[in-house]
Amino acid sequence: MLPYVDIHTHHPTGQAIELRTAGIHPWEAGEFDAAALEAQLGRVQALGETGLDRVRGPEAELQLRAFRAQLELARKHRLPVVLHCVKAFEPLMRELAAVPLRAVIFHGFIGSRQQAAEALKRGYCLSYGVRSFASPRSVEALRATPADRLFLETDDQKTPIEEVYARAAELREESVERLQRCTLANYERIFGEPLSDESTL
Asked: Which H or E element spans position 84?
């Protein structure tokens, strides 16, 4: 039986493949301690969530400093990055362009098909969750996201990951099993942890 990959969750259940991360959220950028964060990085699979938020959190310059420092840590430790981005797509993309990273995943993507295309052109991955489904432009982006750049998540919602996959499958007009195979293959490719003999697309 194929597992579900929940690439970003605040409520781990142990019922899916759930990513181990450490990072300073942009809302907490004022509390950023590079040394304390770096001490945790040997026990995680990715740095995150980090990013920029132009709606909530401390002033933009403070968020930017914390974000840049975390991108440098991710580069140094060769860790993928899980991103939080709210109304800051262009400045965030500029910062990403300046740092070579192992992989980038936009979590909870709520953006236009054009923004999705720009991120995909750079080789980044997009993850969708319940809030994404409520945005018509994000649904359009979800439908256009190639299978090899796609992840799904529960984020801070209590919705079971199975329901997220069922909804995404309906919107993309494909099977849940196909989505499971795709996200599992993407997980194995990025994180280098083969988990199933059935992960071939």
From this structure: strand 81-86
**What does DSSP say about strands 5-6 and 17-18: parallel, antiparallel, or unpaired?**
parallel
59: its two tokens: 């002033």
pLDDT digits (tens, 9 = 90+) for 32-70: 999 999 999 999 999 999 999 999 999 999 999 999 999
pLDDT value, residue 1: 87
Does the bond joining 49 to the residue before it have cis omega, within 30 degrees of 0?
yes
Alpha carbons 68 and 83: distance in angstroms, whole number = 12
Report CA Rg, the chain. 16
Q: Cα separation of 157 and 143, whole Å?
A: 22
Tokens describing residue 181: 């195979």
Give me the half-sphere count of Cα atoms (radius 13 Å) on the Cβ side of residue 174. Answer: 15
Q: How does pLDDT run across 114-167, given as a tens digit for each residue?
A: 999 999 999 999 999 999 999 999 999 999 999 999 999 999 999 999 999 999
Helix axes 176-191, 161-172, angle to 10 degrees: 110
Gap between the Cα atoms of 39 and 126, Å rounded: 28
Q: φ, ψ for residue 32 (rounded to 5)?
A: -65, 130
Would the pTM count as exceeding 0.90?
Answer: yes
Q: Tokens 């907490």 — which residue?
A: 28
Separation of alpha carbons 73 and 53, rounded Å: 20
